[in-house]
Amino acid sequence: MAAFGVIDKVGMAYESGGRKAPVVAIEEVSCTIADGEFVALLGPSGCGKTTLLRIVAGLVSKTSGTIQIRGKEVTGPQRDFGFVFQSLNLLPWRSVLDNVLFPMEILGLRNAAAVARAQELLEMVGLAGLGRSRPSQLSGGMQQRVALCRALIHKPVLLLMDEPFGALDELTRMEMHDLLLNIRAATKTTVLFVTHSVSEAIYLSDQVLVFSRRPGRIVENIKVDLPYPRRAQIRYSEAFTQLERRASEALGVFKCAMPG
Ligand SMILES: Nc1ncnc2c1ncn2[C@@H]1O[C@H](COP(=O)(O)OP(=O)(O)OP(=O)(O)O)[C@@H](O)[C@H]1O
Ligand SMILES: [Mg+2]
């Protein structure tokens, strides 16, 4: 069976302008993504995670390599992908329901079925009854769930998420992990998820791609064979800790020089 996605030797150098050398963000990044797989891009700040996600989304053009999703080369923005960015960009003057439906309006597909689906999604994330509220009336975690519904409204084949839970407190973050995994199990959506949290990457994913510092290269590809559904207790298991250790080692956290 052909892979769902193939990222082959992708590189990106940003022009710095003037006579300065280009900034090489990522170099020779290759991986394959299976249909329905949850893949985390884990790496330190500035290693090019957002760059790669934006390239996969077709929002930024790469300087080298190829990306194929479902057998088609990605050369521009894709309608059948969904996004959640760290800055949620919810429209403050619109209701929660109208925010979720916004992509359907852009696509010219807002109809009764779309409204029903939006309500279904809001119910799935525990926001039933809040469709008429404004985003500002919701907590950060609730706003995050609205953004997730908005990303899923058009049944994307691939969900791209860029550090979506970075601003949330630990408990809300863990709740969002379980919510996301439930939704992913229900919708069978393939997910590419950027994070710099080791435990978040392992808890969520089938596959964790660990990046080096810039220029970002994949230094380790970790298959997480912990069974789904995952429950919070698994975070304290021996297997989980070992995977965390492996990812941390690949990130280089044990190389920090200790004084004395
Ligand atoms: N539009 C741009 N123009 C020039 N350089 C850029 C641009 N976007 C990103 N860069 C540079 O590319 C490198 C990688 O940036 P990127 O945002 O992809 O990293 P990141 O891994 O997402 O970091 P973080 O974890 O802090 O979000 C950085 O050195 C950054 O300064
Ligand atoms: Mg980033």
Molecular structure report:
The chain is α/β, with parallel strands linked by helices and 260 residues long. The protein has two domains: 1-80 and 158-173 and 189-260, Rossmann fold, CATH 3.40.50; 86-155, no CATH class. The chain contains seven helices and ten strands. The protein has helices at residues 49-57, 96-106, 112-124, 140-152, 170-187, 198-204, 238-251, and strands at residues 5-14, 23-33, 38-42, 64-69, 72-73, 81-84, 158-162, 190-195, 207-211, 218-223. It is globular and about 55 Å long. Adenosine-5'-triphosphate binds at residues 14, 23, 25, 43, 45-51, 196, 214.
Keywords:
single chain, about 260 residues, alpha/beta, Rossmann fold, six-stranded mixed β-sheet, four-stranded antiparallel β-sheet, 7 helices, about 35% helix, about 25% strand, globular, binds adenosine-5'-triphosphate, binds magnesium ion
What can be said about this structure in brief?
The protein is α/β, with parallel strands linked by helices and 260 residues long.
CATH architecture of the largest domain: 3-Layer(aba) Sandwich
Number of structurally distinct domains: 2
The bound ligands are: adenosine-5'-triphosphate, magnesium ion
Largest sheet: 6 strands, mixed
The N- to C-terminal Cα distance equals 55 Å
Mean pLDDT: 94
The coarse overall form would be globular
How many strand elements? 10
Helix share bin: 25-40%
Low-pLDDT residue spans: none
User: By helix and strand content, what is the structural category?
Assistant: alpha/beta
CATH superfamily (homologous) name of the largest domain:
P-loop containing nucleotide triphosphate hydrolases
Could you spell the SSE succession in H and E letters? EEEHEEEHHHEHEHEEH
